[in-house]
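Dear Dr. K.,

Following up on our conversation at the group meeting, I've run the structure prediction for Sucrose transporter from [Myrmecia] bisecta. I'm pasting the input sequence below exactly as I used it, so you can double-check it against your construct before we proceed with anything downstream. Let me know if the numbering doesn't match what you have in your notebook.
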Amino acid sequence: MARAAWPEDRPLPLPLATPPGDSARHEQQQAQARRRHVDALELSKSPRKGSKASRTAIASADESKMGVPSRTLAGATMVAAGIQFGWALQLSLLTPYIQELGIPHKWASLIWLCGPITGLVVQPCVGVWSDNCTHRWGKRRPFIVGGGVLVAIAVLLIAYSADIGYLLGDNLTSAGPRVHAIVVFVLGFWLLDLANNTVQGPVRALVADIAGPDQRGMGNAFYSLWMAVGNILGYSTGAIGKWHNWFPWLISAACEEPCANLKAAFMIAVSFLLLCLAVTFFSVKEPRLPPVLCQRAKRTTGEFDPLLNGSASADSLIQGSDQQAPPADGLSRRANSGDGLADAMQNRDGEEECRVTTGRLAAGGMKATLAAMVAEMQQMPRAMRAVMAVLALTWMAWFPFLLFDTDFMGREIYQGSPTGTEAAAALYQMGVREGALGLLLNSVVLGLTSLAVDALCSRWGPRQVWAASDLLLCACLASTGIITTAASKRIHVGGETRLFHPLWVRGAAVAIFGILGAPLAITFSVPYAMTADLTAETGGGQGLAMGILNLAIVVPQVLVSLLAGPWDALFGGGNEPAFLAGSAFALAGGVIGLLRLPNLRHSPSTVALHAGA
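The predicted structure tokens came back this morning:
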């Protein structure tokens, strides 16, 4: 039978006489007795059985076992559509736009360096902080809402960068770069990537929190589906060149028709994001992590954990009330065991209320968070290391295309230039808009494929599906070399040399954009489902795991952002050299994936692994 908590007004029992020379042990016993007394007082103040907090915790425990309705998963992930709307505009319009502001092509990729730098720090930290957030909204929703508001602010900065730059002193008649507009643009760009990373990790972790063991694949498929919806709407908005006619008040001295179109598109993106954010917020009711438990865990682990500043061990899972809780005097200090804390929460009558297992608490700010990440990576199982390696190679292949897809259409396919003659600039803008249409087709294919991901993985296994998607990515990127060669062919007509644009070249380019939606859906879904399953199997924190997985994305993006422009310039400019390098990385990812990825038996939602995988 569990002991009742020690009365608050009752003095501590006097310790027995201690033999001379054993004062150190005596002081340690006194300190432990005081800590047990304080812990018992805190636990005695826990919500009584039948209270609202108790009912919420127990209901959440039952949901974690049984899962949630599909509509809840769909609503919880809808914010991905709002985030992806702005991301689609960012991918399709901002690389051309920054060149119009005066940044040369070979340095345009450096603008994208903002994203991985913020992602390298922000998403892992947000993941750990959200694992242990005690806000009344729950663990994940405060970060989702805060990140969504930052996205809206960043989008407005980008949209009005030319106007703000003009107010700060940009010369519109000069042919050089608009320095002030570029500074405002980069500030908004940086903030946008920071905000995106703030939202994406908690949303992924929220899916892992609320989904049952057999629903994780479905949850990530819903996430990919909403991303496809956001892409479709975003690329459609970017492909329309008539927004300035419908919103003429957006045209200004510093912002002519192309700029006004971009401004209108981003205003629509903000409105759509706020709608999606509201749906996600009200679709899920997260249980509140008890503050008393976090405070006790921080105090307990701070003394023994080798990590600095009070970082402790991994996740917080509210388990069902049918499990037996230890008695109050059995609250052992297990910070140095690596298995986390198992604490019994009891009411004043000594009755069991619920059991909470906490792990990996980061209570020491940035330093403790980074220390927790390092410790987690050192203990990472071989299967998780393989997932990170293949994901890094996959994103090394993807980023050159994602950064320069519409620029590729404007430069290589239409042979235009954003800063050339009026005719060259017109050709470039035509290519950018057609590239946005290709990305729209890409999003349709991505959405359809995301619906089939679970079935594909159930039939062939996620390892084979992921590897096959990398090989398809390799083939598509390699084929852009053939199309570029055909698009740059010149013919002699009436004594003049003109570009020859066969219709099949443009059609093939758009077709490649569309086909790439299939491997992109796999990239957006299977790695995260694998990570959620592997983390659940080992009992780690989902937020921290998603943050660490993000390292396999942002590190490749840093490398591509730094090297893509100079690499292209080394081979004469354009985008084709980076695309062909991406093809080689995709080939490596596919081969290594077949050899090293964990072999899940059925689907991403299954945690059982084949022996020896």
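Two things stood out to me. The chain has a mean pLDDT of 73. The CA atoms of residues 258 and 462 lie 43 Å apart.

Best regards,
J.T.
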